[in-house]
Amino acid sequence: MTYILGISCFYHDSAAALLKDGKIVAAAEEERFSRKKHDSSFPEQAIKYCLESQGITINELSHVGFYEKPLLKFERVLSQHLQSFPKSWKTFLSSMPSWLTEKLRIMKIIKKKLQYKGDVHFIEHHLAHAAAAYLVSPYKKAAIVTVDGVGEWTTSSYGIGEGNEIHLEKEIQFPSSLGLLYSTVTAYLGFSVNNSEYKVMGMAAYGNMNKKTNPYYEKLKKVLEVKEDGSYRFDMSYFIFHYANKMPSKKFCTLLGGKIRKGETEITQRHKDIAAGLQLLLEDVMTKILKHVYKKTKCDNLVFAGGVGLNSVYNGKILKETPFKNIWGQPNATDGGSSIGVASYIYHSILGNARNYVQETAYLGPGYTTGEVREFLDKQKVKYTEFRDGKELIEKTAKLLEENNVVGWFQGRMEWGPRALGSRSILSNATNKHMQLILNTKVKHREKFRPFAPVVCEDDALKYFDCDKPIPEPTDYMLMVYPIKEKWRKKIPAVTHVDGSGRLQTIRRKQNPLYYDLLKHFGKLTGIPILINTSFNIRGEPIVCTPEDAYRCMMGTGIDYLVIDKFLVKREDNFQDKWDSEQYALD
Fold first, then answer.
1. What is the DSSP-derived secondary structure letter of residue 502?
2. φ and ψ at residue 222, rounded to 5 degrees
3. Phi and psi based region of residue 22 (left: phi greater than 0; alpha: psi -120 to 50; beta: remaining)
4. CA 326 – CA 310 distance, rounded (Å)
5. Residues 107 and 224 in one domain
6. 453-457 sheet: strands from edge to edge
7. Is 547 exposed, middle or buried, given 0-12, 13-18 or 19+ CB atoms closer than 10 A?
8. The domain that contains 441 carries what CATH number?
9. pLDDT recorded at residue 581
10. Phi-psi region of 322 (alpha: psi -120 to 50; beta: other; left: phi over 0)
11. Is position 355 within any domain?
């Protein structure tokens, strides 16, 4: 029996993943345990969970892998600071302590913190992304594309996967980076980098998405040179991220016609048009890249990973705008997902084991037994009712949703990756035109322009959405945006974005039968089997992990009910001062 642990940490979204004979048996981000969003620290708690899930100790592992090569990354960091000296001096000094105490000492930290005595493997960052996308995909052969901010030197790469081998053939190197361009505009628009790029993607729909009339599309094209094969090169006079802790230069700000927006200030139409111009440019470059990759690989299957792989608006256009016929994406496309990549690469490409597993689920995190949930509720003196069986649970919950209650849904094992997929979700009625506003103000405490995602059973999706046929599996992980069919837009207003689209999640019964059956029963009551599915958290917090996390979140927000395992908890029945805090105070 071969156990392999993959680790990613010290930049953002630290995570751990455990493989047993090539199968992913556990995976989780550190933030879910520490409750620090995008926690970058060494993932001790995530590792502990992975090991305990299989009842093994650290030295029963055959191998441990790390998702990049620290020395190669340090070479790039030194190079960029030397080239920009003396402007880079201040940033260089501030960055060195973490390099000297953590990032260059990975081997010692793993050995010391975990008391691990075995082998530790290091592979390059984009190879880990590629492995996370290909080696657990359903394809025996596929083109591979990885695009993110930056790994060691690489920012974009493509290649081919066949059998258990991966060959990355071409790359674009730092400082030219589509991910960093998106982050630069994110910073300019007043949002946090490595956290809020998806907000800019959502905001783009409110802007001018016409290339001919959006002036910012043309302006942004000036910051990089793009060739027909999709390769690109930055004009670095528009950026300062290579030597400072900020991203856009004064020239970049002048190009877009103003100063950097300060957070929480008004978002104007100009800001929305800038977001739209950025999205248009990203889609242009990505389409050129993918067409070139298809021409070179002559392979109908595409797999993708890297932070840009979470741009679900573009993902939904790939099959229409490129020659690829099939696509698959790693549910956790960012750095956290690379922990799966390095573990899979060790098992298949280093050890030479044949591929015998396809990742068909994201439910890889901690789960809690009925006894454990009951013990928590009783210990905290929570008032609850218990469902007699699954049928009553589904019928009662569907009725609550039909009556426009907001329901916290806590069932089974926690999701892997940034999306709630029906295990740690907040559910509500998609047919209620007021529900988006209710959720954004009473529960999520977030920007009012942000859309909510619809969830629909896979066998119902084509009735309501202009999806690709057959429906691509990345929709299971909320990785693709599609147009909602015109006749249904006014009937599901709470999940219809301003441009008529929805970032849907499809659910197949084999993945999550309880969730699937809830949707079907809600459809019987309302005539439309679609719910709002948003992550079970509030702004600035990670998705809930434990029963305590879920109860706290409900008691501090406008969530009406919590359906947790076999139990129903009504918020109004459980007001307790100790659960109320400024952290969760409503506006």
1. E
2. -75, -20
3. left
4. 17
5. no
6. 385-386, 567-570, 561-564, 407-410, 424-429, 530-535, 453-457, 505-507
7. buried
8. 3.90.870.20
9. 42
10. beta
11. no
Residue 546 and residue 426 share a domain: yes
The whole model's pTM is what? 0.95
Tokens of 431: 């047919």
Domain residues for the domain of 405 are 370-584
- Alpha carbons 27 and 34: distance in angstroms, whole number: 15
What is the Cβ-side half-sphere exposure of residue 431, based on CA atoms within 13 angstroms?
A: 14
Rounded Cα distance between 221 and 281, Å, is: 7
Look at strands 165-173 and 23-29 and give their pairing: unpaired
Q: What is the pLDDT of residue 576?
A: 61
CB 135 within 8 A of CB 345: yes
Query: Domain check: are 502 and 390 in the same one?
Result: yes
User: Does residue 364 form part of some domain?
Assistant: no
Answer for the pair 128, 15: CB distance below 8 angstroms, yes or no: no
Question: Are 301 and 403 within one domain?
Answer: no
In 306-434, at which residue ranges do the beta strands (DSSP E only) sit? 326-329, 385-386, 407-410, 424-429
So what's the pLDDT on residue 480? 97
362 within a domain of the structure (yes/no)? no
Q: How many domains does the chain have?
A: 3
* Residue 370: both structure tokens together: 């009925």
Q: Are residues 468 and 401 in the same domain?
A: yes
The encoded tokens of residue 364 equal 């890889």
CATH number of 317's domain: 3.30.420.40
Q: Give mean pLDDT in consecutive 10-residue pieces for the chain, a chain of 587 residues.
A: 97 95 98 96 98 97 97 93 87 87 92 92 98 98 98 98 97 98 97 92 96 97 96 97 92 94 91 98 98 98 97 98 98 97 98 96 98 97 96 98 97 97 97 90 77 95 96 96 97 96 96 97 98 92 97 93 98 70 36
Domain contains 463: yes
